[in-house]
Amino acid sequence: MGLFKKFRDAWFAPMSFDSLDDDFYDRLEESLILADVGMDVALDATEKLRRRAYDDRLLTADQVKGALREILAEKLEVGDSRLDLSTQPSVILVIGVNGVGKTTSIGKLAYQLKKQGKKVLLCAGDTFRAAAADQLEIWAGRAGVDIVRQNEGADPGAVLFDALAAAKARRSDVVLVDTAGRLHNKANLMKELAKLRKIIDRELPGAAKETLLVLDATTGQNGLIQARQFKETAGLTGIVLTKLDGTAKGGIVIAIAQELQVPVKYVGLGEGIKDLAPFDAKEFVGDLF
Questions:
Q1: 106 vs 128, 143, 152, 177, 255, CA distance in Å?
Q2: How confident is the model at residue 2 (pLDDT cuts 50, 70, 90)?
Q3: Residue 11 pLDDT > 70, yes or no?
Q4: Angle CA(121)–CA(166)–CA(265) in degrees, nearest 5?
Q5: 243 annotated ligand binder
Q6: Which residues bind GTP (predicted)?
Q7: Any binding-site annotation on 103?
Q8: Is 153 annotated as contributing to ligand binding?
């Protein structure tokens, strides 16, 4: 059973591939839209499948499914889905709106990197939310990694500066930076993200840097709006899609990949420390139906 059986059941279980008529393509298009892939992606994928079915004389259900998998996988395969951890230290800035699971995702990723033999340092850059640093410290303990934190209300830039200095002194391999949740349409908070990026560039000019946007899979098309704004401000290198265990949607990843050319790097599939999986486009699409 694939990781995305829920998607497959919800999207394509009702679909019949027996008759490739206009009704079939209309229903396919509707299924894709309901899965939050967006109107443009749904129309394009359906039209490409229609042409491929005609040009390649696809007749069987397996042939049609295979063609659709290829079309959707191609839309997801943008950029490099692997993390760039080529320097010591490398820095991963984790951003997103409130409530999407940033701190949890950092804890899970720290656990995975530690398992891979990396020396990981967490930076408690969310100094606004009550007990945010405490929550991150709990995850640091679970993952068995170090953490740099200050008191609630401290300047996030100062915390980041201390964390980067500690990483250099301790010869850490990876610094994972937590940030306060912020609305993508609040200019002052978005400017703070740009400030954090500048600190990283100044203190570690040659370091490999990732900026991961954490998105809640259940937010649908609003996720694309968030991604547009965060990319403009912080220069996204990847997406972490959370809460896939609680939705039959998640197609927003295709829309984001297509429009912004930003790859999905991880997917969250539960609350456990091991419930974070590297994103695999072919596996994702192959498990849809």
A1: 17, 10, 19, 8, 24
A2: very low
A3: no
A4: 30
A5: yes
A6: 96-103, 178-182, 242-245
A7: yes
A8: no
